[in-house]
Write a structure and sequence with these properties.
47% of the residues lie in helices and 14% in strands. The chain has 1175 residues and is of the alpha/beta class.
Length: 1175
């Protein structure tokens, strides 16, 4: 028995299920429970039982899980806002919110509560609000040892290419070796690996799926030969017994005479005479099955007893097939291949995250992993729990099930479980509901008006089991606490539920139904908007606006039909779907042609194909001019050559935007029908291509990706879903799936009688998910029952989106062209409710509607408005005033930036300039040196000068192991490696031997008594650092430098403006020798052509000229702070050994500059950077 949930008395421990019907405030309730957990709130309930969690929790201990990134962002925002609202209430001591007012009365210490909520508010960016896949990924990563997760795995959001590769590998391994007959049969079923992938793609992520019947050990070839033997036997028997067939059927069986009979025999005879056997059977063959003949025997006809008829009966009722065997083998094989490919490449996909965590929790280290996760998250709230699948539920049940020291709160509405196509499994919810004894409900609708709530309640109460699985998904009527207003049309309350009945006897087909209802919907919207302009269609005191209206549809085709019909009446609209990909659009195919032309502007065929696209909007005459006007053609080729240069230089997005402006595509598109939609797609694709280009190697790779993506778009990838084409408040056309969780003042459901029978025998039985590829009647019947159950849930979602009024389009719909008066309505969700699941003629539906109207005054039934308005709708525009530019009077602080030594040394002002950040391995000071051709003699002094040679010299000391350079046995590989680096950098490889010898000289130079770089064992190359820097000026830094460092007194003053932020840099080498730590920097500066130019005053002058004194001071400060954190007994006077600047061209005879900044200087510099200058 379910209990009504009271937010402030709900027990915050154990395993509990909350069922929240549509519009009953589910998110509001979650935020309220979250507040209680933060505050440790929990007075005893009405039965005297405690309701609080053991202690107050912080936001990192409360796990909130939902299923999409958008839902996660919304939930995080709503919780944050609720915390903020509650904190202000505790500070003020009052609140107009009923829940907060009660909370204020029950929490004694308001000051402490406000402090707790302030801490939570500040910490919300760290709150554990995740998608289920995000949660699994975090748990695997943070518990890599216990979970057995790979440490360096890469996460991929789209594994489509892996799937296609796995199917292609299976195709080659299983299909290539087969004989001609089987190959022909396989090709008839699937033209390519892509076609085979389409057939099995939906099964690959379902870890629970069992495919029936079980495969025997026979190979494909053996199975094929067995099936073809059955076909061959029937063929041979037919040819041998043709006279007997005629004798036992012609005139012996009713209607087996005349031209039809002869036609049947001819078709079967042609099939039987064909020496090539296949799986297709001629249609008339079934007429000669024994069971059919017996049922159709004429009054005085003889009993057919030819054995051939029995063989035909068996062949027709158990037709030869290779498909189910291939599909089953392929699904199993492809899964294994994909898993192996991902393991080999260290890749993880969405399904792997769930599977890996599920397995880890069940592993020998599973208990330890559970304890760690429960230690991190004491409470778990699973939002939209009805959309879970067995694996997801198994994970959370394993973590929190049956425990009272933690909490697992499952929140959802089984009546809104509509994502079966994504793998959501209502039977998992049903199982969880049975496992949990504590059920709570939210019973008050805060969204819709009283009349509409009453109408929807009455509709679902008509059926005994409105959601099929009545014991597990009961319908509990909700009370209305929603909007007080109603829709008023011409001064009268409009019906809350208006049912249009298309009375065209005896039945109508789907095409007629859709056309009529699309017109009726557009006409009624036109009427409402026109009346609203005259103040005759109002919601409260506000006229109905286009943005108040939503038309809910099932498919893109339905949406486009409505959009086109509205457009014919001058009514603009937008279409929203969460399933349609921009890669399925016409614009995607056209951009592919344009990109091909841009990459190959000399290819006349490619260029003409691009110009013929609708994006260029050239008519036949304009296209013909390219053939007759050579100047025009050459100019166009040059234009596309420029696009290619733009693409190569600045990227595909810049190129497509240039094309947009040059060809004035935006203005032309917006001036045509569907222009906003097409321009939005164009810009969306440009951004998508730019994003993808960063992950691919070259322009042709991007072109190949786009072609493959168009052929098989990943429609569920968030970045590919069609974007909203307009921000204007227009009529919204929304898929029912997309509408879930949203509300609209007025809702139209014009095609609510449409349905599609389930032809895939996928169903559930006793906790198992089964796919019966034998297509047994029982399997198809159960799958169809589950289809109807999901359609009923989809109907519930659709009917609960409206706030004030909803329109339904109903008709005596029947598939096919038969003359029967029996409709298919009982197979639709709306028909199931109204006709209570009973088959009937159109009169049965009319009677059911009349009964509904009689019991609920807010419901009306009438004919759809099919009379088209005479004039199109003209949207009224309020005359805007003269736009005024707002003046900004504030002041923006622009001195917080990421800086570097070179920026402080050379900058004449602060700012985010490009190039100021330190770049590892780049010799900035050598950049200004003039390169010169080497003299005949190769020496270190004649080695090329400039930035590139300097960077190369740095690279040698970074990449080559010092021990290898000094090891005579490694002379050859070291020299070869240096030659390779020279070649890659564009230098003559003949320098390699000289540079190898020079490196040995540098490494064996004595820097201090007993200290040689080649002997050092503890070192770190290219040490990157970020130093926080409070507000300082050049003057304050110079004053400190001049006070402590004699070299700085010789340098010119620094000239940067006052700055604060971060200081970034890379130290060439940090090393430890005899307990002291040193900074070392390589310099490739050319100071002269002899060693004498690299010592004494010349060396000091180079240090001063380039502000190297500032550089080593900053590097010393970085090392000082690092050692202060790492060494427990750190003392700068004892541990800092100083700096070495190695001017490589002067070594080994000279070129070494060494000094050791005073410990007092380091401390003063540290204080300046930490506290800033005193003002």
């Amino acid at each position: 028995m379910s209990k009504t949930l009271e937010t402030l008395r709900f027990p915050l421990f154990g395993e509990r299920l909350i069922e929240a019907s549509a519009g009953t405030g589910k998110t509001y309730t979650i935020a309220g429970l979250y507040l209680r957990l933060l505050l440790g709130h929990g007075p005893a309930d009405d039965e005297g039982q405690p309701t609080a969690f053991a202690r107050p929790l912080n936001v990192t201990e409360i796990l909130v899980v939902t299923f999409t990134e958008a839902a996660t962002a919304e939930l995080r925002g709503r919780i944050r806002a609720r915390i903020h609202e509650a904190r202000l209430a505790f500070l003020r001591g009052q609140s107009s919110d009923a829940l907060l007012a009660q909370l204020l009365a029950e929490v004694p210490d308001h000051e402490q509560a406000a402090r707790l909520l302030l801490a939570a508010e500040r910490q919300m960016d760290e709150a554990a609000v995740f998608t289920i896949h995000g949660f699994c990924q975090r748990m695997l990563k943070s518990n890599a040892f216990e979970s057995g997760a790979l440490f360096e795995s890469e996460f991929v959001t789209d594994d489509g290419q892996l799937r296609l590769q796995a199917v292609s590998d299976y195709w080659r391994s299983d299909f290539y070796p087969v004989g001609e007959s089987l190959a022909r049969a396989l090709r008839a079923e699937w033209k390519s690996p892509s076609a085979l992938l389409s057939a099995i793609n939906g099964w690959l992520d379902n870890s629970e799926l069992e495919i029936l019947p079980a495969l025997d050990a026979a190979s494909l070839t053996e199975h094929h030969e067995r099936e073809m033997a059955r076909v061959a036997a029937v063929k041979a028997a037919w040819l041998a017994n043709l006279d007997a067939v005629r004798a036992q059927t012609e005139k012996q069986i009713s209607r087996y005479t005349g031209k039809n009979f002869e036609g049947w025999l001819e078709k079967i005879g042609q099939w039987a005479s064909d020496p090539q056997h296949g799986y297709a059977l001629p249609d008339p063959l079934g007429r000669f099955a024994l069971s059919v003949l017996r049922d159709a025997r004429a009054k005085n006809g003889k009993e057919p007893d030819l054995p051939l008829f029995s063989a035909i009966d068996d062949l027709v009722n158990r037709p030869p097939s290779i498909a189910e065997r291939v599909l089953q083998r392929a699904a199993h094989d492809v899964k294994q291949r994909m898993q192996q490919a991902k393991q080999d490449a260290y890749l993880l996909s969405f399904s792997d995250l769930l599977g890996d965590l599920d397995q880890a929790l069940d592993s020998p280290l599973g208990e330890r992993l559970k304890e760690r996760i429960r230690g991190s998250y004491r409470v778990a709230m699973i939002d939209e729990f009805q959309d879970t699948d067995p694996q997801q539920y198994r994970i959370f049940h394993a973590l929190y099930g049956g425990r009272s020291d933690t909490a697992l709160l499952m929140i959802g509405d089984p009546k809104q479980a509509i994502y079966g196509f994504r793998g959501a499994d209502i039977f998992t919810y049903i199982q969880a509901r049975r496992n949990v004894s504590d059920h709570y409900t939210l019973g008050r609708n805060w969204r819709s008006s009283q009349p509409l709530v009453t109408a929807v309640n009455a509709l679902f109460e008509r059926a005994r089991a409105p959601f099929i699985f009545d014991a597990d998904i009961p319908f509990l009527p909700v009370a209305a606490q929603g909007k007080a207003h109603t829709l008023q049309v011409e001064g009268q309350d409009a019906p809350a539920l208006c049912c249009w009945w298309l009375d065209e006897a005896p039945t109508v087909n789907r095409t007629t139904y859709q056309a009529r209802m699309a017109n009726a919907t557009a006409n009624e919207i036109h009427r409402l908007l026109t009346l609203a302009q005259a103040g005759q269609a109002m919601i409260g005191e506000t006229p109905v606006r286009p943005g108040d209206i939503a038309v809910l549809v099932r498919t893109g085709n339905e949406g486009r039909m409505i959009q086109q019909t509205l457009a014919r009446l001058g009514i603009a609209s937008v279409y929203l779907s969460n399933r349609e990909s921009v890669l399925e659009s016409t614009e995607a195919r056209e951009i592919l042609l344009i990109l091909q032309a841009c990459l190959q502007p000399g290819d006349e065929r490619a260029l003409r194909s691009a110009l013929a696209t609708a994006l260029f909007d050239l008519d036949a005459r304009a296209l013909d001019e390219f053939s007759s006007d050579e100047t025009l053609w050459e100019a166009t080729v040059q234009e596309f050559q420029e696009y290619r240069r733009l693409w190569l230089r600045h990227g595909v997005l810049a190129m497509l935007r240039a094309l947009l402006h040059r060809r004035q595509l935006a203005s032309r598109l917006l001036g045509a029908a569907w222009g906003e939609r097409r321009l939005t797609n164009y810009l969306h694709l440009a951004e998508l291509l730019e994003q993808t280009a960063s992950e691919l190697d070259g322009e042709f790779a991007l072109l190949r990706w786009l072609g493959e993506a168009i052929a098989k778009p990943a429609g569920q990838a968030e970045e590919q879903v069609l974007r909203l084409e307009s921000e204007r408040k227009l009529v919204q056309i929304v898929t029912i799936h997309k509408s879930k969780g949203l509300e609209y003042p007025l809702v139209f459901l014009p095609f609510i009688c449409n349905y599609r029978k389930n032809e895939t025998p996928l169903y559930h039985d006793n906790g198992r998910t089964l796919l019966d590829l034998s297509y047994s009647e029982d399997a198809l019947e159960q799958a169809e029952r589950e289809r109807l159950a999901e359609d009923l849930r989809l109907l519930y979602v659709a009917l609960t989106r409206g706030v004030y009024a909803t329109w339904l389009g109903l008709a005596p719909l029947r598939a096919g062209n038969g003359k029967s008066a029996i409709t298919d309505l009982h197979q639709t969700a709306i028909g199931y409710l109204l006709q209570q699941g009973v088959e009937g003629e159109s009169e049965a539906m009319k009677q059911a509607l009349d009964q509904l109207v009689a019991s609920v005054p807010a419901v009306t039934v009438g004919a759809p408005p099919l009379q088209r308005p005479e004039d199109p709708y003209i949207e009224s525009t309020d005359e805007p005033g003269e736009p005024q530019v707002r003046q900004f009077a504030g002041q923006i602080e622009r001195d917080w930036w990421v800086s570097s030594y070179s920026a402080l040394a050379t900058s004449h002002g602060g700012g985010h300039e490009r190039g100021v950040l330190a770049t590892p391995g780049f010799d900035a000071d050598a950049a200004g040196e003039q390169g010169s051709a080497p003299e005949n003699e190769r020496t270190i002094f004649t080695f090329p000068r400039g930035a590139r040679p300097g960077t190369l010299l740095h690279t040698l000391f970074e990449e080559l192991a010092f021990a290898d350079v000094l090891n005579p046995a490694c002379d050859e590989p070291v020299t070869q490696r240096i030659a390779t680096l020279l070649g890659q950098a564009g230098f003559e490889t003949e320098w390699a031997a000289l540079l190898a010898g020079h490196m040995r000289g540098v490494l064996t130079t004595e820097l201090l008594p007993g200290l040689r770089l080649g002997d050092v064992s503890r070192m770190q190359a290219e040490l990157e650092f970020f130093l926080p820097m409070e507000r300082i000026s050049a003057a304050s830094l110079d004053a400190l430098r001049h006070q402590y460092d004699p070299l700085s007194r010789q340098a010119r003053p620094l000239s940067f403006q006052r700055v604060q932020g971060m200081l970034k840099g890379f130290i060439d080498l940090v090393f430890e020798w005899q307990g002291r730590w040193y900074v070392l920097d390589y310099k490739s500066n050319w100071l002269g052509a002899s060693a004498a130019d690299y010592q004494g005053a010349a060396l000091e002058q180079a240090m001063v000229d380039h502000h190297y004194d500032l550089q080593y001071q900053l590097y010393t400060l970085a090392l000082h702070r690092l050692l202060a954190q790492r060494l427990p007994d750190y003392d700068p006077a004892r541990h800092l050994g100083g700096i070495f600047y190695l001017f490589l061209r002067g070594m080994p005879q000279a070129g070494v500059y060494h000094c050791c900044p005073d410990a007092g200087f380091v401390a003063a510099l540290d204080h300046l950077f930490a506290k800033g200058e005193t003002r």
